[in-house]
Amino acid sequence: MDELNEQIAGRAPLAEAVLQSFAYVTQESFLDEVFEEHHGRSYEKVLSFAGMVAVITDALLEHDGSGHRALQQAQTDEQLDASLAAWYGKLRRIPESLSQGFLLKSTQRLLGILPVTKSEVPKSLRKFDAFGIDGKKIKKAAKRLKPTRGFRGSVLGGKVLVALDFRTRVAVAMSSHEDGEKNDCPLVAPLLEQLEGLTRRKSVGVLDSQFCDLKIPAELEKKGFHYVIRYHPKVTFTRDEEHPVTTGKDAEGRCYVDERGWLGKENDKRRRYVRRITLQRPGEEAIIVVTDLLDEVEYPATDLLELYRMRWNIENVFQRITEVFHLQHLISSSPKGTIFQCAFCLVLYNLMELERSYIAKAQKLKPEQISMENLFYSAHRQLIGWTEMLPADWTVTYFAEPLTAQQVVARLHELLDPLWKDEWMKSIKKKYLPKQMDPPTAGGHTSVYRLIHKVPSS
Q1: pLDDT digits (tens, 9 = 90+) for 259-281
Q2: What are 132's strand-pairing partners?
Q3: Rounded to whole angstroms, what are the CA distances from 425 to 165, 333, 361, 420?
Q4: Within 10 A of 225 (CB to CB), how many other CB atoms are there?
Q5: What pTM was computed for the model?
Q6: Engineering a disulfide at 86: which of 82, 181, 287, 292 sits with its beta carbon 3.0 to 4.6 angstroms away?
Q7: What's the rounded Cα separation, in Å, for the pair 199 and 137?
């Protein structure tokens, strides 16, 4: 029987690669360490943190985001010792610090087995660790809690602010708040505190226009970060008349203006000297960024504009964790539970980025040339086949022996280097007309947090 099971497992190499790397990132001893460091006031009795992770893994990888089906399967396999109500209650109360620590620590562990691929960061900026920073509202929370049941509009879960490492293409950290309507700016400082310990190199943060004020640049500078932020006209810019304005063209032949000046009014103590680059785009809104990287020779304007363009990658991550990893199917109806599911989806995204990087390196492709959606679709089918064809106890035994980082790397090369399907190649993007927005839902929206605490929506 074991020989037959091994033959079946051999027909699902992508599934084994996902399970093998996930087993490494979520080893029980490692999860115990994460819980011990970040659990706050929560505790473990019958339900362990590792057990919670196992059920949510099954829900998101095999059951299309259905926590109920995953719990039923866990009961069938005699892997759940608590009732469904106790499990949901535990998820509802999971502290934000544990969600944040789970993403931070698991990503650090994953980076130890991530293959080195060519960085897409412009050459002049590769001496920095470049992070795209943006926020996400967790939408479509279920209206199971009593304060939410009578609300006619859509209900938000929590709010997260995520940092994406442009060099490795993985989400490395997040800060959060239970209120999905919370502004992103107050979440920057706690996120930077997490990023401080990740690298000894200088870093640069890339942010959108909502972060263009006088407080956020000060926060970034205080933590040793440089910045590239899209300019917002709400903040006064006064050009330095004594410094010459330079002009040029980017790779697409569009004209830009590079100038220096002061961000903020003259009587504001927070006023700072910056460089402002304006890229004209015929038929579209101009892109204007401000930065504290003042040297035009060392940091060409075209490189800084290209770095800002990479900020869109974090929007793609949000879209993928929502549509591909089932964040639109929220298992928990509480803000804390939705934040943990979001952190978990980011970990899954990082794992699929790991698999994509191995395959791309073996095929001599850029990881961006491989479709994350199509790759996960193939992995999803193999994972379902693995679960249906192989006994649960055999799978547990198969992955029971913890592997070292070197052993995991060797096994992933063995599994993924020979793999390729033409359907994984990403199609060439076409330019479409802007999508017509759907009409707003009757009743607007608010967050679970505001309904529970009776806070007026902004």
Answers
A1: 999 999 999 999 999 999 999 99
A2: 164, 206
A3: 23, 37, 14, 9
A4: 21
A5: 0.87
A6: 82
A7: 28
d(CA 230, CA 265): 18
Residue type, 116: V
Question: Is residue 248 a contact partner of residue 277, using CB atoms and an 8 Å limit?
Answer: no
DSSP 206: E
Interhelix angle 13-25/405-416, nearest 10 degrees: 160
Q: Are 114 and 24 in contact (CB under 8 A)?
A: no
Quick one: which H or E segment has residue 133? strand 129-137
pLDDT of residue 104: 95
pLDDT at 219: 95
Q: How far is CA 280 from the centre of its chain?
A: 30
φ, ψ at 175 (rounded to 5°): -115, 170
CA separation for the pair 341, 329 (Å, rounded): 10
Cα maximum dimension of the chain = 81
Residues 6+ away with beta carbon under 8 Å from 108: 172, 198
Instruction: Report pLDDT digits (tens) over 403-412.
Output: 999 999 999 9
Rounded Cα distance between 432 and 7, Å, is 46
Query: What is the DSSP-derived secondary structure letter of residue 428?
Result: P
- Residue type at 274? V
Q: Alpha-carbon distance 273 to 293, whole Å?
A: 10
Does residue 170 contact residue 114 with C-beta atoms inside 8 Å?
yes
155 contacts 448 by C-beta, under 8 angstroms: yes
pLDDT band at 289 (very low <50, low <70, confident <90, very high): very high
- Two tokens at 288? 């204007």
CA distance 376 to 426: 13
Angle 335-362/13-25 helices, nearest 10 degrees? Answer: 130
- Residue 429 is classified by DSSP as P
